[in-house]
Amino acid sequence: MGKAGSGSGRGRWTLRRRVSVLVVVVGLVLSGLAAGEATVAAKNREYLDVLLNKTGPLRIDVQGLLNAMVDQQNGVRGYAVTGDQRELGTYRDGVEKERELIASMDALLDSQPAIRRQLYAVRDQAEQWRVTVAVPAIDTTATSGTDAGQALLTAQRTQLFDQLRAAVDVLREQILELRNRVAEDARQSGNALVLLLIIAAVVVLVAGTALLTSLNRLIIGPVTALAAQVRQVAKGNYDRSIERVGPPELARLAEDIDGMRRKIAEDLAEVREARTRIEWVNSQLEKQAEELVRSNRDLEQFAYVASHDLQEPLRKVASFCQLLQRRYAGQLDERADQYIAFAVDGAQRMQRLINDLLAFSRIGRLTSGFSDIDLNQLMTEVSSQTETAQRNADGELTWSELPVVRGEEALLTNLLVNLVSNSLKFRRPDVPARVHVTAKRAGDEWEITCRDNGIGIEPEFADKIFVIFQRLHSKDAYPGTGIGLAIAKKIVEYHDGRIWAVPAEGGGTEIKFTLPAVASLDDLVEGPGAEEAETIDETGPVDQATAGTASERPAAETAGDSSGEQPVAGENPSGDRPTADENEEDSKRKQRDEVTT
Q1: How many structural domains does the chain have?
Q2: Which of 40, 71, 322, 338 could form an S-S bond across to 94 if both were Cys, CB 3.0 to 4.6 Å?
Q3: CA 587 from centre of chain
């Protein structure tokens, strides 16, 4: 609070404290006025009650009391003159009326002892008049006649009634004086009540004016100034500091907003710095993308060269070496025949290596599109392609009920041919090879298992077999290029799956891989191969299948790391459909072979 007040004289008290003090002061003043008004109003009601419910009836009753006494006097005189008993009825009614009125007036004079004493004096004088004048006159008239009764009504006795009348007049004057006094008190209390109401209205008006002034000076003005500063910051002027204005609450708010401004300025500086770094990284990525485009173009050119220009010399070497074998077999010494066999074998292995590298590089670049594939039908094709390998290994390929998956048929065929051929190749000596393929649902994917009873694999080498050119045995023990399982891994990853190897219980190996499950036709997920097939740059021909269409090649050619029939020199081992240039080149090669023969 002290810190806030040091910046502004208005900030010595908090807004809450100012409003609380104003409310308390106004409340106390209004409470005092309300208490005074309640007291005055109660007095005013008391005065009005006396004026309306006491003095008014008292004035009527005192007049009735006088009339009742006059009726008594007239009744006694009439009876004394006429002797008529009916005149006594007037007297008796007057007496009864007098007593009722005195009782009624006595009940109204609880708070007026002086008037009550005067009422009792009137009552006593009336009783004295009746005892002294009225009763003797009535009795005398009844016993001695009217003349005797009239004789008792002398002037002296009449004077007693005049005194009674004077006492009633005094009582009337006292009641009138009470009425005038109460009326004046009621008028003064009414004026006081009006004055208190005026004071309360003035207090409310002054408090409202003070509140509006305070709101304008302590809230509206500072908030308007703060809003103007915030708008400047909102327009992007993040370097403008927010000044502390108004009471401590608004000063703290301004300080918090300024803290937000500083944080935004810092974040903005970081964003600008990050944007600069991102722009630099993007420029580097663009350069790398251009380099990748050039690299891919070079790779495509290499694929074209490898599939045509690079293989052509190999075909020639293999062809002429085979001609030497056929023509001069047995005519040269044993060492020469061995050299020729080495040359033929090297050329053939080079052709297989080139074909496998081409197959590896084409995965994911060229596609025929994804479709629904029944793995049961696919396994029939795989069994057909690996029939020779099964026969050579005295093996058997079986499979359980397999699902329908979404993928590219040529690639999945190549995948399963590689796995089955690999299992048939790495068999135990003198043990018939057995390969079994199963599938099970695992969440949102299918887990396919290819199990064999071969030589097995140590757990520490389970990941290395999927690395390109990684071999655990020499090529003399198990021939191959070391690319087959690398091709399998790339095909599985192209289908958003995983592949791994584990030792099988009881010996052998289990190679497992996953493929995304297709729940229903309405829930098919288009794979990355659903787009139109890509084409190679104009620097080379257009290939029609990835890694060679499996149905167009023998199993040994499709499986990169399998053992089977060796390609014959002069054939198209890559599995590509020959182009016009290749046909022309093959024609020239055949002519050269015929001339040589």
Answers
A1: 3
A2: 71
A3: 74
